[in-house]
Write a structure and sequence with these properties.
With 336 residues, this protein is an alpha/beta fold. The strands form 4 sheets. Strands 3-2-1-4-5-6-11 form a 7-stranded parallel β-sheet, sandwiched between helices. Strands 7-10 form a two-stranded parallel ribbon. The longest helix has 22 residues. The chain is 40% helix and 16% strand. Bound molecules: nicotinamide-adenine-dinucleotide and uridine-5'-diphosphate-4-deoxy-4-fluoro-alpha-D-galactose.
């Protein structure tokens, strides 16, 4: 059985579907801080497997001990955490507590229960301002926001733990920009409040929940002047987790790897692709640059391919089509 923390969230729920489809049974622990219980039945229906659910906070050691007791947990996938870069600057205490304390308590509970394998949700934000592109895993690390510092802090903790305990193995996966949804449109990204990220904002404009998209900056040193990112389909990201899990369960050692496609797409290219796929118009206007934004970054995705035998197979148009399947069928997101 695999323990999935934060398994009702955006990335966790899609990964839970892929894990069930691979025949794995799951125990999901989530405190519902940023997700809804309606996700559970939908991911059970899509995955067709066994998913137990415990509503708990990963900082609650007693709750984790109770959840693991009597179950044979082979490995943990740790998605639970807070993820908004801007909010982390305004509320550092919450970010350090959720992301660092949460992981520390989880690792202590795992050690006590004799569980020695962890897949961790890290982030491309650990690299900071690019010294060169694409970012390889050897690129210098310069996390800037409290959020990025927590991700790098956990990576360092995992390195120290693996050095101290030969049984412990981890996969730290540095995600680039996951977007899209399960192709069924039954699960997808459902941020609370006004989306801070480009793609959920765009799909909410397309569905009529928001009036117009603001493109942050048009004079970056990029081919069309707008920001460039490495967008990866959420189901490719889910498959990457399955590959990382196999790597750990087959005792092939610890790994820190980028999960991206290796291709950059600008804001205007993404809008154009969405319009092409859906036949809709997305009203947009140009605004000033967003504080702290980097002009362009994308992954060198070769390590994951070499070491995990995984590479992203879905393209930008798949991401647009599947995100629209979700947003158009669920204009207000999940029911309460
Ligand atoms: P999400 O907010 O949709 O999912 C996180 C889930 O964890 C939610 O269901 C939330 O209720 C739960 N949670 C939060 N704090 C918890 C706690 N203390 N105890 C128990 N449950 C808790 O976010 P997501 O987009 O699915 O991201 C998952 C992970 O991936 C996060 O760690 C995030 O930092 C990381 N990540 C995300 C992105 C991205 O663009 N989405 C990029 C890089 C890294
Ligand atoms: N953008 C707009 N308008 C918007 C929102 C974003 O033009 O309304 C632009 C941004 O300026 C940027 C691009 O769209 O050029 C992507 O921005 P996002 O906010 O969607 O994503 P970021 O690259 O800033 O950050 C995201 C997550 C982080 C994660 C990181 C990993 O928010 O948590 O990807 O690469 F760590």
């Amino acid at each position: 059985m695999i323990l999935v923390t934060g398994g009702l969230g955006y990335l966790g729920s899609h990964t839970c579907v892929a894990l069930q489809r691979a025949g794995l049974s799951l125990l999901v622990v989530d405190n519902l801080a940023n997700s809804r219980i309606a996700v559970l039945e939908r991911m059970r229906a899509l995955g067709g497997g066994e998913v137990e659910f415990v509503q708990a906070d990963v900082r609650d050691r007693a709750a984790l001990d109770a959840a693991m007791r009597g179950r044979r947990i082979e490995a943990v996938m740790h998605f639970a955490g807070l993820k908004a870069v801007g909010e982390s600057v305004a509320r550092p205490l919450e970010y350090y507590d959720n992301n660092l304390t949460g992981t520390l308590v989880l690792l202590q509970a795992m050690a006590a229960a004799g569980v020695h394998a962890l897949v961790f949700s890290s982030s491309a934000t650990v690299y900071g301002e690019p010294a060169f592109l694409p970012y390889t895993e050897e690129h210098p690390l310069n996390p800037v926001s409290p959020y990025a510092v927590t991700k790098r802090g956990v990576e360092r903790l995992l390195e120290d733990l693996a050095a101290a305990d030969a049984r412990f193995r981890y996969a730290a996966l540095r995600y680039f920009n996951p977007i899209g949804a399960h192709p069924s449109g039954r699960i997808g990204e459902d941020p609370r409040g006004i989306p801070g990220n480009l793609f959920p904002y765009l799909t909410q404009v397309a569905v009529g929940r928001l009036d117009q998209l603001t493109v942050h900056g048009r004079e970056y040193d990029t081919p069309d002047g707008t920001g460039v990112r490495d967008y990866i389909h959420v189901m490719d990201l889910a498959d990457g987790h399955l590959a990382a899990l196999r790597h750990l369960l087959e005792a092939r050692g610890s790994i820190t790897a980028n999960l991206g496609t290796g291709r950059g797409t600008s804001v205007l290219e993404l809008i154009a692709a969405f319009e092409r796929v859906t036949g809709l118009r997305v009203p947009h206007a140009f605004g000033p640059r967003r504080d702290g934004d980097i002009a362009s970054y994308y992954a060198d995705a070769r390590l994951a391919e070499r070491a995990l035998g995984w590479r992203a197979s879905r393209g930008i148009e798949d991401m647009c089509r599947d995100a629209w399947a979700w947003q158009s069928a669920n204009p207000s997101g999940y029911p309460d």
